[in-house]
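Researcher: Let's try something more involved. This one mixes different molecule types, so please make sure each is placed in the same coordinate frame as the others.
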Amino acid sequence: MKKTVLFGALAVAGLSAAAASAGTLDDVKARGTLNCGVTTGLVGFAAPDANGVWEGFDVGVCRAVAAAVLGDETAVEFIPTTGKTRFTALASGEIDMLARNTTWTFSRDVDLKFEFVGINYYDGQGFLAPKALGVTSAKDLDGATVCVQTGTTTELNLADFFRSNNISYEPVPIETNAEGQQQYLAGACDTYTTDASGLAATRATFENPGDHVLLPEIISKEPLGPLVRHGDNDWADVVRWTLNALITAEELGVTSANIEELAAAPTNNPEINRLLGTAGELGGMLGLEPNWAMMAIKAGGNYGELFEKNIGENTPIGLARGLNAMWTEGGLIYSPPFR
Amino acid sequence: MSDTQAHMAAFVRTETLPQLAPPATERGIVKWMRENLFSTIPNAILTLVSFVIIYLVLSKTLPWIMNGVWTTSSLSECREVLEGATGACFSVLTERWNQLMFGFVYPADQYWRPTLAFVLLFVAAAPVMFFDLPRKLLIFTALFPFIAYYLIWGGTIFVPILALVGVIGGVLVYRKLVTGSFAMGFFGGLIAALVIWTVGGMLIPEGANDTAALQAVPSRDLGGFMLNMMLGVVCVSLSIPLGIALALGRQSSMPLIKWICVIFIEFIRGVPLITLLFVASVMLAYLFPPGTTTDLFLRVVIMITMFSSAYIAEVIRGGLAALPKGQYEAGDSLGLDYAQAMRLIILPQALKISIPGIVNIAVGLFKDTTLVSVISMFDVVGMIRGPLSAATEWNGIYWELYGFAALLFFVVCYGISQYSQWLERRLATDHR
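Model: All components are placed in one shared frame. Result:
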């Protein structure tokens, strides 16, 4: 009798210990939805459509993770965050992951205690100038007025660039990207500088995009990627390998169109089999279903499909793959092997 | 004399001549223009300059508005339809109308709920604003907050009913005890209401929201102009009584109450609203453990109410100070106690003087509700700044959207201002 009570108490203690240390993965599974932090709106990366359904490149990552963990790409609660509230929201546990074109920097990773799980877009700071100005290089911009967002790394990069090239400029401080577009179009500044993807998106909205050129210089590194809190490695692994699965799928030619067929039975390519769960135990190691990667890829397509659908050359934003091409095609997008 | 004249004259007019029209320069539009537009040379120059300016403005805006496109589904289609001609792209308003009004997450099949609440708002506000209406309508006004809460947030009907029961219980206890002293009645009522809410809160079954008749909508899903209206109405109606209490407290002869009120008012007035909003959204998240945060809407309401009640208190203090001392003494000499003197003599006069100031604060507060867009709440400006200007199909539209937001706010604020002018005329008892 006494023994039973003792065992019972031990079992209860063990259970409660397990409950206390339950990680984000278990929380998400118990809740049935993934809380994903996105921007309040950035063309091509995240914005709700007319029906309130979120769309975009960063949104695609959220949906893939939701599909991998819960098997349902619509089981996502999108929590819009501003540049000011995003880190608080993640640190306080309001969101499970942040996919909000956030630059991976030393201090954010180390000092703010976040874990960047990978890079889904390699960006860099560029310059937009009217063709009529007649400049072909950012080094010709001596004495130019430059619209730049205040309090950003953009502003610091700009100062560094002009100082190291020993030319002068006059900054025109602006607050938001929308304000920058207006100021630039109104002629308040000769050139507008921000991330190149943002410049391309901005130029795409002009009435005559052909009258403006993106100067060839890219003056900074802005690797953007999803991030999670420090200290929950299981959850970080889930997000990291979901992103890697999307990248690997493109490398292996697995698309949302042929995935059903490839996943139906083991193929000749063992890596595809491991990825899609028809061979090996990779899903179980993550604590997910064997077909987790297949669900993630089916949600919005592989990395390349997501890119083409949201920000690629056939969209109004019209970004070329550039640095974001597969490593096999001269870009930097590279995933560790699924083995 | 008259005889001779009559005989000598060859012709005598026997009837009066019909009146001639005044000279062209002294009648009709010409006269009006001479008097009002061209009375002196400097005035004539000013008139011409004004006409030029009006022409310049209208010649740009009118074609832009008249030529507006209402039916396309993206900005580039608008540009195709216009083929380079000037014209607005109002299609964004028609396509995203619901998002501008209700935000982008409020369930689309439930839009009738906030709409109904909005219509009922007028019914509820009418007896308060126009006191010629039958007083019995005030019963509906008292019920309205609970009805509106149920309509907008949905969920189980027990929550608003419980809140109502708590309030009724509190009022009953207050009535019972207030004959002893005001403080006893006030705190007794408060405790009774809290007891009812706590006990009732435990009785509401777990998961009652899932089976409710109206689908529950969390505060996070509220947005659009609806959010501005809700914040504006709730905060104005809460901050006026609070402001009166603070103003009276500041004049109190009890030092503790007086200094609490003074410090509260001066502190709040010394801090920008946007700082308070950031405290509400960011700082409180650090203070609470994860998962136990209070509703963001509630936090914002508390902050804005505190802010505007401090300002309203100062406006009312001005009204109180403007009353001659004789009014206070009159109340005392009639043998009225403090509450009676305030209610019957002082406040009616002081509030009448303060109407323009209070309306000024109310209009300012209503416009300040757009500040919540910086803490990622999607009021109408937040919708425009965020999701709408980032939508692939509408990126690059500014004038149409911000003009529309300006129009919405203008309609409401102009209405408030017209009402206050009517109220001043209606309450004017002096002879001018």
